[in-house]
Amino acid sequence: MAIGRVLYEHQLFKEALVSFKRACELQPVDVRPHFRAGNCLYVLGRYKEAKDEFLLALEAAEAGGNQWAYLLPQIYVNLGIALEGEGMVLSACEYYREAAILCPTHFRALKLLGSALFGVGEYRAAVKALEEAIFMKPDYADAHCDLASALHAMGDDDKAIVIFQKAIDLKPGHVDALYNLGGLYMDAGRFPRASEMYTRVLAVWPNHWRAQLNKAVSLLGARETEEAKKALKEALKMTNRVELHDAIAHLKQLQKKKVKGNGGANGEGSFVVVEPTKFKTVGEKTTLRQDLANALEIRAFQRITRLSRCDVELLKKEMNDGEVPVSYSGTGVPQRSIRKPNLEEILRRLLDFLKPETFQGAVKAINERILTVFDDTGSGRVDLGMFFAVLAPICNGPPEKRKRVAFDALLWRPVNEGGGAQIRKADATRYIKLLRAIYVPSHGVKSSFVMFDDADWGFGIMSTLLKLETGDRNRHGNRVCSVCRYPIIGSRFKEIKSHFSLCNQCYSEGKVPPAHKQEEYKFREYGSEAEAMKDKCKCFTLQSHSDP
Ligand SMILES: [Zn+2]
Questions:
Q1: Domain that holds residue 185
Q2: How far, in Å, from the CA of 306 to the mean position of ligand 1?
Q3: CA-based angle 50:56:57, to the nearest 5?
Q4: Does 363 share its domain with 318?
Q5: Could you tell me which residues the TPR repeats occupy (predicted)?
Q6: What pLDDT is attached to residue 18?
Q7: What is the number of structural domains in the chain?
Q8: How many Cβ atoms are within 10 Å of 203's Cβ, its own excluded?
Q9: Ligand 1 centroid vs 483 CA: distance in angstroms?
Q10: Burial degree of 9 (CB within 10 A; 0-12, 13-18, 19+)
């Protein structure tokens, strides 16, 4: 042990680890060697092993009674940090919370809890934890910085600016606070202040190319064109990333537009938005505008969570293999309900191909979109059968299989056990309600009711989603959208009178080129140019037949 500690202090972590491991063997009931071995593993970037070692320390501490009580909060905190290293932020929150309960003055545990909650999108709870941390340690710069970020995420930018400023007062070289404050000033149109912040970031961290780029943009906003050009050149010296070239192209576009505006053009934008009732469809296969808007949103969610790469069969496997703790809800009806951190472990298995940061992003999206709807009482528990049923339609697999798994998940709920192959009506109703609340939240009750009240039993939106999934790589020669000017990918929506074409996004948003003002617009959807070709030929044959 003593040797290990000396080695650790001299940053010889690999060597220290060997000593601590040996100590673990000699004194298996001692907490400290496990704890220290865990720290070594964490520093070496071996998060999973670190976590296992901390869990052993925890086990030993609980078995050893009071003598280790003083170490428990620290074990919980380090366990949480190791879990965050693996991308398991919901689980990390659990342990930070434990530490804060055991030791209410542990301001670092509260700060870590707040930052982790921020990372999974639970902003209100994050603000509470961070405010408590600051209450205990008023000069805690990092806690101020994260608090300001959470406030910004909740839309309270005025307060966020004050708190970021406080973080900078406490620690003048706080790069994150300076950089984020620069962004807020830019959003507020206070460009000289923004460029000042970026200059200060660069003083601490001269190679921060994003700060350099943003400095250029804010100088441009402040109409210091020459300075802006200089800053851009500096940014180009730092990196050759595509983002930078995209940003420059975008800036040039903006300048061009401005020139055009000054030159006395007709003053209209490059599109007008038409109200939904004026969009009509031609042909049975043409997707309705509202359906497409909904499906595009679901598709975006599928992409952030990477669930489109998760085989739906894996859900089935979880149901068959997993041992889920059954709990009883207030009314006494048994449910297979599960706590959020355990749910995160299941998600980790389903999405085991993701890197920790990407996985954390997926959990954040699922937490914000699905779990908040499920756990509206804030109990921290989720009905697992329902959860699988909601997930299944957006996983990877043939549509019939996705529906089958959703159906099985509803049957899998214990209330249905022994009840044969029938889903209770109450469950079906609740399921459809959840689907609506999660996947089409922004639309009125009436329209979504129609959408889900079809013969397809709640999956009306799925056919449109499938079209998007398969059309991702369809190009249409070098056809571009008449509104956004990007090449059309997926379906092409052609207006049959004026012959302009729209991409998925512009069609779903109801944008049309201003040159074509019409009472109403009729669109036909083409999945590919081959389809469009066939359609043209059909027109010709019809015409020739009708000719006398
Ligand atoms: Zn477009």
A1: 172-258
A2: 24
A3: 90
A4: yes
A5: 107-140, 141-174, 175-208
A6: 87
A7: 4
A8: 12
A9: 5
A10: exposed
